[in-house]
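JOB MANIFEST
job_type = single_chain_structure
chain_count = 1
residues = 149
[input]
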Amino acid sequence: MTGIVSTLALLLTLCAGAALAQAQITATVHVIGNDDGGPLRQRLAEVQRLNARGARVEIRGAHCHSACTLYLGVRNLCILPQTEFGFHGPVYPDRPMARERFDHWSRAMAAHYPPPVAGWFMTTARHVASGYVALRGEALIGLGIPRCR
């Protein structure tokens, strides 16, 4: 009987440890400062990982441009009203993009934005190939994205 009790105690300890580890992962906060963007595929994968872990993302920099804007697809997110978000469509840095690839990557990006932002992106920002269309966090907060406190 003592062996069964010891085994149960060990299992309960392991389960409690696993629950605590999950709570610590869920409580992870990623603060985004000034972010100029980067490779689209990598940022999409990062947003998926953050959502899978339940991580919180706080965009607190002066600017969040290009692929950085995909963080708007993180479910546990907040932004500052003064942050400038710079949007543009998908581009290859070294060659033209075929129309079907442009449409594919535009849809992939839009799928990571909240619906009001996604609609605006598909009608307006995705057609910008050089520079950015800038929106302040204040405008995005007006569309329902939570404000950081």
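[summary]
The beta strands are 29-32, 56-59, 63-65, 77-79, 84-87, 133-136.
Residues 2-26 form the longest helix (25 residues).
exit_status = 0
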